[in-house]
Amino acid sequence: MLLEVKNLGVYYYTLSGVVRGAENVSFSVREGEWITFVGESGSGKSTVAHAVINLVPSPGKIVTGEVLFQGKNLLAMKPEELRKIRGKDISMVFQDPMTSLDPLRKVGDQIVEAMRVHGVDDDEARQRAKEILEKVNLPADRLDYYPHQLSGGQRQRISIAIAMAFNPKLLIADEPTTALDVIVQDAIMDLIDEMKDEGTSIYFVTHDISLAAERSDRIAVMYAGELVEIGTTEQIIENPLHPYTRALVESVPDLWKESEVRAIPGYPPDLRNPPSGCRFHPRCPIFKEKAELKGRCDVRGPETLEVEPGHFVACHLYGGA
Amino acid sequence: MARGLGRYIVIRALMIIPMILILYTIVFFFLRVLPGNPILAVVGTKNIPPEQLAHLEHLAGLDKPLYVQYYDYLIKMIHGNLGVTLASPMGKPVSSYIALRLPATIELTIFAFTVSVLLGLATGVLGAVRKGTKTDTTMRVYSIVAYTLFIPWFGMMLQYLFGVKLHWLPTSGRIDPAINFHSITGLYVLDSIIQGNWTALHSVLSHLVLPSITLGIVLSGAYTRLVRNNMVDVLSQDFIRAYRARGVSDRRVLWYALKNAFIPVVTLMGLQFAILLGGAVLTETTFNWPGMGTFIMDRINYRDYNSIQGAVIVFALFVGLISLIVDIIYALLDPRVEY
Lengths: 321, 339
What we know:
The structure holds 2 protein chains of 2 kinds.
Chain A: E1 3-14, E2 17-29, E3 34-38, H1 45-52, E4 60-69, E5 72-73, H2 79-85, E6 90-93, H3 107-116, H4 122-135, H5 152-164, E7 170-174, H6 182-197, E8 201-206, H7 209-215, E9 218-223, E10 226-232, H8 233-238, H9 243-250, H10 285-289, E11 304-308, E12 311-314
Parallel strand pairs in A: 3-8, 3-9, 6-7, 7-8
Antiparallel strand pairs in A: 1-2, 1-4, 4-5, 9-10, 10-12, 11-12
Helix pairs in contact in A: 3-4, 4-5, 5-6
Chain B: H1 2-14, H2 16-33, H3 38-43, H4 50-59, H5 66-78, H6 94-129, H7 134-148, H8 151-165, H9 188-194, H10 198-235, H11 238-245, H12 250-286, H13 292-301, H14 305-333
């Protein structure tokens, strides 16, 4: 197992109270697989992605759990040790290409620096910078450009180029295509696919379940800071178990059918004060229908069960008492 | 790019001309609106034979119509002549006074400016890095208090504490008059270093401490806020986390953040410089500093039109020049600036 996350909890200590950004999150990432995390904004999917390399933005703090990368707990590592892994074994691509490069420095310098911090000497780094730029289909002269002279798509290519520099074992891509138009989006997805072909495991975060379905091996669904369902792409799309996952799958508009797009009624809960029991119960259509669920869903949090091989769900509808 | 920058500099420099013209006009007419005139101020009484008063006014050129006076001085100014003093001592070139006083003010402002920027950066970065903690609040309070301090009061408090009570530092003047020292450029620090006169240098620096700290602290408040807020803003941006995610050390990341946060600060520097000179006037009077500030105050009492006009215009040129330099630095620092 490349990455094992156990019982991860991240709280944000804001002035208006403690926001429970993620709780009891456990999952693993296998070597060479593409796993996608889906969920609404505020579901904790980005929080977990950042926590994996211990980069939760302030005022967030990792309060519980461990992140085992090749057996070693990243959260217990000395900063120096972790620094050697960041950018080399684990790379990250961020959501907004407009802000994820330093506006004051030429992109070439930023690519070269990313290699130099891991001990590559200057000349070699320059040479390799040209090569990886070619890999992401950008002309070598872009090295001398400042970020503001490039388009959003080009900048995201630069970010991916930097992430590719060491052929990492894991790429964490936090909504890398959300800020881009559909055509560019596809090109970026292709680049990530190429990385996967070269053996990198992809940890992809998106709110777009159709994008998730396209290329991932497995999908993990998050709701209100908790992991509610995880399984192979086929299992999740063809046989969604959790009412939230079902709603999410049904909410995708189909160009060829005339059916109406079904939105999920209600809003995600305030994580300063999450609902008791299952966090989805106030919005859950099944909970509203079935009277016998009262006293269960709204009282006790569900346990995570393996319903079919590799398909886990946290919902009271499955499994006995 | 270099040609673009050259053009930009020329245009910015040309913009100083209308600024000076407007300022000259305002000062010229405001001075004439004030009650009294230089002759009365020198004579000190209104009981002077009218024909004698008229004669003196004629000598000073004050009998001419206002627009002629305005025009005459303007033409002189264009030729680099700031006129002669109209009050005691009469008839001395204004420029000779300015040559004497301007270096003192420049020296003070350079030191005060340095103090303010360093203090502002330090307190601002500290507040940003410790965002939301007591340190942050302390820095915020510091900023507001510093910003609202009244220079003469604050200066006197420092004089009382470090001069009168502790006898650590001198409280007035630029140098101990007992020291044998001859100035060439008027910048005493520079002169004493060139001449290798270490006794003088020690005295000059110790005289500089209190005035430049007074002025520096007051001006640092604005930087504290700006640096803190910019820093918080920059630190929350993705590229900072992206740097960390690439394994760049925290120290380097902080340096990159500071560079980004510094750009708006550079803009403020240009603006602050004008305030700095205003503050210098108050600081100079408090510390009996023989600079432009005390000169202007002194000349206002005499209604010495020419001296005041000359001094204000030199001040304006100075501010214009500094803001030009600041803009050039800004353009060089930020690749996004188009010129």
